[in-house]
Amino acid sequence: MKKDLLKLLDNIQENSEETTQPARYMLIDGLNLFFRNFSVINAVNSNGAHIGGLGGFFRSLGALTRQIQPTQIIVVFDGVGSSTNRKNIIPEYKSNRNVTRVTKHELFDNIEEEDDAKYNQIVRIIEYLTTLPVKVITLPNVEADDVIAYMSEKLPQSSEERAFIVSSDKDYLQLVTDQVIVYRPVEKEFYTKKIVREKFNLDPGNFILYKTLMGDASDALPGIKGLGEKSLFKLFPELSTHDLTFEDILDISEEKIENHVIYARILHDVEMLENKYKIMDLSNPMMTLEDKEYVDAFIKHTELELHPKEFLKMYEEDQIGGLIRNPEFWIKDTFQSLVTLK
User: Fold this and answer.
1) DSSP tally for the chain: helices H, then strands E
2) From residue 152, how far is each of 26, 146, 256, 270, 276 by CA, in Å?
3) Using one digit for the tens of pLDDT, what is the confidence trace for 259-312?
4) What is the mean pLDDT of the chain?
5) pLDDT, tens digit (0-9, with 9 covering 90-100), for 2-43
6) pLDDT score, position 16
7) Can you say whether residue 190 is alpha, beta or left, with left for phi > 0 and alpha for psi between -120 and 50 degrees?
8) What percentage of the chain carries pLDDT values higher than 70?
9) Parallel, antiparallel or unpaired: strands 189-191 and 24-29
10) CA-CA distances (angstroms) from residue 242 to 23, 91, 131, 198, 248?
11) What region, left, alpha or beta, does residue 105 occupy, with left being phi > 0 and alpha being psi -120 to 50 degrees?
12) Which residues does 237 contact at the CB level (< 8 Å), separation at least 6?
């Protein structure tokens, strides 16, 4: 009888281990998701207040949660002064931000009104998130990119676990591995190693070299004059076949300097390229030791609760209405599984 009981308990333990779902972390670039919704959803409440970014953010969050089925959601926001470290290296970094209107519709009389609407909705989003079993983090002087990069390297603990980075920012593609996948909402596509190769004709590890040489207009970082995507792979076919370093690019340019003016321009602009590489390199996040220790402790905190009444109270106050259908059912159906027991 005792042996039969022990065998039964062993079977229960084995079945429990077999049904445990490998961890799936959804790491969301909070401002990126917000701005995408703010700029395209032309919605106002009965008071005339713009609510497109607010309502759209949570509609997107719900859709992403149902699609990815994460075991944990972490929303990361840029910290105050987040661009400082990179601007100390390249002063022009992101100098083109906040100088033009984001929205294409005529809801605001001027950019100041639009900025106020953005600020108010971001603050409100964070208030809503405190009612959900979702973790939120921001660090002073640190960009969301760096925090997400650090967490994506730390969180997947086995070959079965996955980290899903949600952002339309292509910089994250350099982080793609077998365990790290980037979802770009603007394309509604998951970027695995295979997809990165199909789209860009290189492996994710070389994507930072691609961006360094081609530049990034969204961050006000110019590329090498006269260098286009076709000529890049013609001049550096090794990008498609080998894992390269920045030094490899310089060595190739030195060897072939007589063959094309682009090689000479690369060698002439070495310092500028080195600086661009440094601020684009997410494999080496711009974080202090204290920042990393804070994130390590943040990751270990697992007690998460759901407060639907508080969420719905704010939802009614903000008159978000039909942006989320049947919010009472939506909130429980989407987030109940993420609640952790104390």
Assistant:
1) 15, 6
2) 10, 10, 37, 30, 22
3) 999 999 999 999 989 989 998 999 999 999 999 999 999 998 888 999 999 999
4) 88
5) 556 556 556 555 554 445 789 999 999 999 999 999 988 888
6) 44
7) beta
8) 89
9) unpaired
10) 32, 33, 47, 15, 10
11) beta
12) none
Q: Which residue has the tokens 């000479």?
A: 264
* CB of 236 closer than 8 Å to CB of 202: no
How is residue 1 annotated by DSSP? -
- Encoding tokens for residue 89? 């290296």
Residue 303 DSSP SS3: coil
Task: Say what the pLDDT of residue 19 is.
Answer: 53
Does pTM top 0.70 for this prediction? yes
Take residue 317 and report the two structure tokens written for it. 């106050």
Q: Is 97 exposed, middle or buried (0-12, 13-18, 19+ CB in 10 A)?
A: exposed
Task: Give the gyration radius of the chain's Cα atoms.
Answer: 23
Q: 100: which 2 tokens?
A: 């033009």
Structure tokens at 309: 């009444």
Task: Give me the pLDDT at residue 342, please.
Answer: 43
Question: Measured between alpha carbons, how far is 117 from 38 in angstroms, rounded to an integer?
Answer: 9
Q: Is 25 exposed, middle or buried (0-12, 13-18, 19+ CB in 10 A)?
A: buried
Residue with tokens 């969050």: 61
Instruction: Tell me the residue type at 94.
Output: K
